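Inputs:
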Amino acid sequence: MNHENDTLVLGDRAYTSRLLLGTGKFADADVMARAVAASGAQIVTVALRRFDRDRPNDALLAPLLAMDDVTLMPNTSGARNAEEAIQAARIARELCGSRLVKVEIHPNPRHLMPDAIETYEAARVLAADGWLVMPYIPPDPVLAKRLEEAGCVSVMPLGAAIGSGQGLASAELLKIILREATIPVIVDAGLRAPSQAAAALEMGCDAVLVNTAVADAGDPPAMAAAFAQAVAAGRSARRAGLMPVGTDAQASSPLTAFLQGGERA
Amino acid sequence: MNAVSASTSRIPPELDPQTWLALPLPDARAVAAALATEEPDETTFVTLARAEPARWLEVLAQRAQALTRRQFGRTIQLYAPLYLSNYCSGGCAYCGFAADRSQVRHRLEPDEIARELAALKELGFEQVLLLTGEHTPHADFVYLREGVRAAARLFHEVTVEAFPMAADEYRALAEAGCTGVTIYQETYDPEAYERFHRWGPKRDYAARLEAPSRALAGGVASVGLGALLGLADPLADALALFRHVRALQQRFWRAAFSVSFPRLRPEAGGFQAPYPVSDRWLAQLIFAFRICLPETTLVLSTREAPAFRDGLAGVGVNRMSAGSRTTVGGYDGHAEDEGQFAVSDGRDVTAFCAMLRGRGLDPVFKNWDAAYRSVLPPPGEVSA
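Outputs:
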């Protein structure tokens, strides 16, 4: 399968990698940078809350800025409402180097579930501002369409709770989102194993974003590489066309046998 | 221990630990069931806290580390305490700052506060905890609010550990830049509470117990709770504390919570803890908290010794102070008085961060930017 012509299009940019990586939770910036390199990810997300605006070339950002083929996508995690998310994106605009922004608003610091109402509002305002907005959302098909209408370049529904490693718990809702969406759907949060990432791509998702699954692995760079392989395999399988599910064997006494004979006069 | 006593105060039923303290000591099956449950509750907590350590302590530690990593990653949040004043109207029998101690009294004036804050900022801190004693004319609400204002100009997170206030005072503190309030109940046992708080406004058990709710209702974003372990039956206090956190988390769903584990240490005045808590037991309590509150910040200060802190960093605990001075004006090199308690971990920030990195943990100073914050955070309270 030729991946050269199979790109993930976000706004005016096209990417060959369908694996996005988060940069939090790593033991140090060196492990993080090696994981990013091993993943082949072209988009990595960095929390605005960790940006040191006084020292923009800090340990976190410097190795990422040095990577040629990597676009930084700041995220607004930590924001408790739309106002804070918008404020964070606007203030840190000069640090981002791209117009991509991941709108992430989870007011409850325990389960970190996205606030659909505040997320919609922030996404609407930032999209109108000219940002390429990628909102992190609950797996809600109606919300996904509303955000598409508001000008978002993708939606990022959760597979399961952040850090939970429960995989594609939201699979049935994701399928509805995928059926309806005309912008890329990127599964964000909840993935634990590369096989789950492959399953997301096979299902038709355009990309996945992982963080804890890599950062909390025994060997983060090796796990990042494994995710890259799984994402590529899942995408190839999707394009190859999976066999249909549930092709039942022919019963020896078909229920429609009575229709086989000629019509009676 | 008995919650029913001659005391005028009662522990509210939703915090009372008695039902679970009466459970038999857990056998191996009970501990295994507690470790397997997806819905940790009071029974889970008390089961894990009383699990036979020779058999279970390592198992609990492994689980605590896995859960800490899942929620917080391989990171430790760092903060520094700044004692603004050691004037105190309180009669806490165990405290080096109590009103009847022959302590040199001092408060930082605005220029001194500015110097201390600058010294802390220079060390790399972005999160500061401002402390005073109980309310006195020398260190009252207005004094504290001005301290918060000064700190909020330099620091991204400013928390306060002072005295119980009214909701409108907490709101004014939030507007001045206060992002968190720490207030320990000390002990949830009303009888012990009354015995050790000999006079002054701090004798009011209920006023202290309700302070976290008032702070959150006033718009403060986070609250730190704790019990001063050693004053009363530590298991009873830990369980009541667990119930307190859970009750507040349900009511204030947007708020962040942290739990601290101050343990009574030898203070000025020679107070002996009636229920001393060993290292082993404190560790087990911390593991039980982590397993039963997997998403809540757990804090360990420099009251504890280096080996103990190093062992728990990332193994349950995800937030720590470092390089702390517990004297008034300790960072700018001018303090001469005695601290509130003796610092056991005297390592400076650089040495402490080197230890964390050596254990595969990333020290995190900055976790939010004050410039992003909305002026008035939504209260986020679900009315009962």
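Remarks. Chain A has a mean pLDDT of 88. The two ends of chain A are 56 Å apart (CA to CA).
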